[in-house]
Design brief:
It is a single chain. The protein has 332 residues and is an alpha/beta fold. The protein has one domain: Ribokinase (UDP-N-acetylmuramoyl-L-alanine:D-glutamate ligase, 3-Layer(aba) Sandwich). Helices cover 39% and strands 22% of the residues. It contains 13 helices and 14 strands. A hairpin with a 2-residue loop joins strand 13 and strand 14. Helix 3 packs across helix 11, helix 9 crosses helix 10 and helix 11 runs antiparallel to helix 12. The longest helix has 16 residues. The radius of gyration is 18 Å and the shape is globular.
């Protein structure tokens, strides 16, 4: 029986607030370059008060992936918590406008937490330093997972960042069980090497027991397997997981599936903002696999999508992704 959804994502629901800054700004305000740092409300207010002109765009890592899969013609849905207030309703509207089903109940406007937001500080070299106030997104719980929705997906896509939450592990397990029981597959993105370090044992167990497709960049994969050698990390991952897709920055991506290994090259483009490159890579790969693409074609689709996103501010595509894939002969 055919499924209603190609991919259902589960993860953070955030609004990105993006601003260009000089490296000196990062030093003056104690921001560590190139990583995601969790912050509280006071820190968010402090940083925002010192930022220059900013752009507000609905985001969240897995939400970006799901929105891009929808832009590529996929049937998608998303699960992530926001509050019933302006930013929360913006997020809800944006997801639905992208073509994704989004039915997670909004948290009451009277509750203490706010809709999560990520202050994305973009350096002149395009590197992004993310300062994230998770807000309601942190409190994703098993009650937010609708088993019928998970069972109606070919794939679910789980966001590693969401491991930082009191009930998120249980929510993920509920989603995994419902998906697997109905014959669907599970993919996960590791998201961040420091997040991996905080939850390494849980990530390793999930990858070994439940994950069909593991997304990571080289730093995250090496963190997962506690090695400085990428080849060792890839070899360990391929022994534990059916398919592994590991990005290596400007060098493209390595994809392995059982005994097959391929390399997908990057697409030449000027880096304006690296925010969302991994999210769009995952979107291209998953959308390709759902269309029956072989591993190399899926990897190339991922690199094309990533190149589009780093060419402008923000982690939601501005160009027609389907047209870009067609130009490259990757829509078949």
């Amino acid at each position: 029986m055919s499924k209603s959804f190609n991919v259902v994502g589960v993860g953070n629901a955030l609004v990105d607030i993006l601003s260009h800054v000089e490296d000196q700004f990062l030093a003056e305000h104690g921001v560590e370059k190139g990583i995601m740092t969790l912050i509280d409300t006071d820190r968010a207010v402090e940083l925002y008060s010192h930022m220059g002109p900013a752009v507000e765009i609905s985001g969240g890592s897995a939400a970006n992936t799901i929105a891009a899969i929808a832009a590529l013609g996929g049937k998608t849905a998303y699960v992530g918590k926001v509050k019933d207030e302006q930013l929360g309703r913006i997020f809800q509207h944006d997801m639905r406008a992208q073509g994704a089903a989004y039915d997670t109940p909004l948290a009451s406007a009277g509750d203490g937490h706010e809709t999560g937001r990520c202050m994305v500080l973009v350096s002149p070299d395009g590197e992004r330093s993310m300062n994230t106030y998770l807000g309601w997104s942190e409190f994703l719980a098993p009650a937010d997972i609708v088993e019928a929705e998970m069972a109606d997906a070919e794939w679910i896509y789980l966001e590693g960042y969401r491991f930082d939450g009191p009930d998120s592990h249980a929510a993920f397990q509920k989603a995994i069980t419902a998906t697997k029981s109905a014959g669907g597959k599970v993919s996960v993105t590791l998201s961040d090497p420091f997040c991996v370090a905080r939850h390494r044992a849980a990530f390793r167990k999930m990858v070994r027991e439940d994950v069909d497709l593991l997304f990571a960049n080289e730093h995250e994969l090496k963190s997962l397997y506690e090695t400085e050698d990428l080849e060792t990390a890839i070899a360990t991952a391929r022994a534990e997981c059916e398919t592994v897709a590991c990005t290596v920055g400007a060098k493209g991506a390595h994809l392995v599936q059982n005994d097959l290994r391929v390399h997908a090259p990057t697409e030449a483009t000027a880096v304006v903002d690296a925010t969302g490159a991994g999210d769009l890579f995952a979107a291209g790969v998953l959308a390709g696999l759902c269309r029956g693409a072989d591993l190399l074609t899926a990897g190339r689709r991922g690199c094309v999508a990533a190149a589009e996103i780093i060419g402008h501010i923000g982690a939601r595509p501005e160009a027609d992704l389907k047209a870009l894939m067609a130009e490259k002969g990757l829509m078949g």
